[in-house]
User: Fold this.
Amino acid sequence: MKELLLGLRLLLGSGRGNRVRFMLMVVGSGVGVCCLAVVLAIPGILAAQDSRKAAREPDCSNGRGSCLSTAGAGLALTRLGPYGSEPLTRIFVAQTGPPIAPPPGLPELPGPGEVFVSPRLHELLNKDPGLSRLLPGNEVGLISAEGLAQPDELYAYVGSRPEELKGGGHLSEFGWKYARFPTVEPSTLDILRFTLAGVVLLPLAVFLSVCARLSAASRMRRLAALRLLGLSAKGTQRVNAAETVAAALLGAVLGLGAYWVVNQLVARMGLPGFKWYPADGALPGTALLVCLVGCPALAWFVGRVGAKKAAANPLAVRRSAVEKPPRLWGLLPLVPGLGIVIGYCVAGATGNVPTDTSFSAILMPLAVVLVGTGLVLSLPILSRALARTVARATSSLSLGLAMRRNEVEPGGALRVATGLVLLVYAASLTQGVLIELNQVSKNTSPVQLYTMALDEVPESKERALTEVPGVRSHAIQAQSWTEPGSEVWTSISAVIATCGQLRRMASLVENCVDGRPARLMVQGHTYDEASKPGNSFPFHLRNSEGERRVVNVEVPRQTIKYHDDTAAQMVSSGAVLIPPSLFPAGFRPEDRATLKLLSSAAAVRSVLEGIAGVDPTIEVETDGVDAAALQQITVIKTLLAVGMILGLIIGVAAYLVAATDRAVERRPQVTALALLGARPRTLRAVQVAQVVLPLAVGLVLAVVTGKMAESSYLVTGGGAVFWDGDGLPLLLASALGVVVVAALGALPLIGRRIDPELIRRD
Assistant:
């Protein structure tokens, strides 16, 4: 306890310079803790949103096989579809018995012809009259915050009559164990945590360590003096730790206060595609514990380690003895990390993609952490080796002075360059995550296909659906009948349409003759083995009155070359085109049959509104567009952008703090060189070379290892892209920009005024 009090007394009474340094440590720790709080708050925000989603889930809202309950005093039907790039959720409800408790956010369930909407949906209804087709009825109120995942959510409860919800599930209550459509899927959330750990947490640990070791050289000389005056070795370490812990603790309080302000402001303004309520951003107890206890604990550890040399050998510190060269054990994490990364890259290049995803889910993050840690620990070793080589070969005075200083003080490169090196390394990893996300749930075709189950579309509404404005063409797709329980599951796919309908749906249709069946051959697609000429397959038909018939269709020899522009080919190669005239009038397939509509990609919103005008309860599958997945990708991209901004702040702050501190610590040496006749231009060149050369080496290593780690991540991700060179020019340009900024930032650190007092002052 005495040593701790001594450390605090030295802090308060050791002059203005030390007090300024202490305040810089506090501010630096505050910035770091604020960034840490942002990262720790993200899982809590997502969990709060999913909790409200689960609390409003109907216990049974889909009656098509996934809901076996027959109890309940009502019916419910959930419809989720795209509205532009956002998901629009509609819950159709009908009460058939005693009143049902309303979900959170509603005073009561809507009756037939009544609609409750979210505030954002209320605003859109006033701007887009066609949206009312999706929400038939009169608006009677707004859903409060308790019933919404986030303020901008598009959500509605639509009151209906029981006969309108024949395909719905039996409703008894609201509330479920989990959300059917979480804000971020658990597997994707793991990717987010993994990326944020690399982008933010690794540079943050370095930054907090740098802040805890400000003015390390002068502090070590002061601690060595205390040790020589009789203070014990452990006491010396405690004196140093007292100052760093005090700074870290005050910084933690300051950082948490800054986070509260940031949360209140950003939650109200929102981020692109992602908003939350301010209460959702409140830090849980574990996060507060990490900030208030973990950061001072890190400072305590760094302080004790930093004072170890002064406590063990104070004379060497007081006499500025030459530091021992870094040992090669710093390369230990880099070697196995690169081994794992190279192994995955070779596996992807040779086509031996790993199939054990559970093993890769453990090994890949381990490799990323090992490589990142190895980059940090190998910088002093590489800096010293490079400095020694360049110093022996160069004839330049400024470059020789710079390299000799880096040779005797290789740890300086660690403090100055680490934050920016880790930032470039993390940027490459983030690019790999974005590449993987862009491979899913994105329709890039010029047309849009809409699929509806035919048994949900009465014949009376089928014609109206095909005449919706914006619909280019339509067809019915069905499978031939197969006996239930049959050991041989053989069937063919059929497209029921005229040649004119087919031509309006596809970009290539050759040899089509009206009234004649034919096989559709899609170039480059695997041919259906069951579709052999002469084979006969039954199709079960039914009309609107319930009458049934069976029509046997023989696979013809005639073929049609076919290709459409949908995200995935609408039909498989070998499917049979059946003219509608081949079936009896009024009869339609009843086994696994769907109605397909086609429009241009620009008409999606108007077509969906037109379909809702015919029947708002029809479930429409928009092939190639998954509204929930697109929303998740938007959220992930936004959070990754936040992580990159935090990483940039941390990296730049670490550089500024370390470079400035290093320049101040070297003022006695610079003054001595100036008194010996070195010109300011030479001293500035020395300072720039000392910073730029090890930083350039670290950035080259970060780009190489980052691209390798990115490729190995893509190999283990199961996507179609393993190697991507599109982002490499941007990454190299960013690295070059970092070097230029570091060089410019080093120029003003050589003062014009020469103070000889510095060369004899402690």
Remarks:
- Residues 16-55 form the longest helix (40 residues).
- The radius of gyration is 34 Å.
- The chain has a mean pLDDT of 80.
- The CA atoms of residues 506 and 564 lie 4 Å apart.
